[in-house]
Design goal:
- Helix content is 19%, strand content 15%.
- By secondary structure, the protein is an alpha/beta fold.
- The strands form two sheets. A four-stranded mixed β-sheet has the order 2-1-3-4, covered by helices on one side. Strands 5-6 form a two-stranded parallel sheet.
- The radius of gyration is 16 Å and the shape is globular.
Length: 172
């Protein structure tokens, strides 16, 4: 486990630092120094990525929303170009980091994973344009991923009719 300089040891890596307004974020995938980093509460994903040494040359920058705000316990996975999209998950969501490797689905005909699909993959679904695809990714990053397909109803622009059309085309 890596904790940024000035942090405690691994035992402090699982709790928010009392009274300092800092949160812990795990940054993995295509970054120079994957690990757990302290960032100010309300910081953007970009700050956590920079603390991890920045993106590698193989990173798919479009696969991660660098301007989303981080939450304590989030995991940010920066995908490799050509892989499925980034995943941001809360510590308790049961994510095993699979978002960086595959399962994003897309035009192959299988269901698309809401937890790892890129904007381009979501845009390929019937009834989803680039704006709505970006809202889905933003929701995923803000709320720590999708634990249920039903959470798609909470995304602005997805009503009952569109949800029913998408239900079988996506997985959490």
């Amino acid at each position: 486990m890596t904790v940024d300089p000035g942090g405690g040891g691994p035992s402090s890596a699982y709790r928010q630092r009392g009274g300092t307004g800092e949160v812990l974020v795990q940054v993995a995938g295509e970054v120079a120094r994957p690990g757990v980093y302290r960032v100010p509460a309300g910081a953007r994903v970009n700050e956590a990525v920079q603390r991890a040494g920045g993106l590698t040359r193989r990173a798919d920058q479009a696969g991660v929303n660098l301007v989303a705000r981080v939450q304590d316990g989030q995991q940010v996975i920066v995908p490799r170009r050509g892989a499925a999209g980034a995943a941001v998950a809360s510590a308790g969501s049961g994510s095993d980091g699979a978002g960086a490797g595959g399962g994003g689905g897309g035009s192959s005909g299988g269901p698309v994973s809401l937890s790892s699909a890129t904007v381009a993959q979501l845009d390929g679904l019937d009834g989803i344009g680039p704006t709505l695809a970006q809202r889905i990714v933003d929701y995923r990053q803000t709320h720590g991923g999708f634990r249920s397909v039903d959470q798609l109803r909470d995304v602005s622009g997805i009503g009952d009719k569109r949800f029913e059309a998408l239900r079988k085309a996506v997985t959490p």
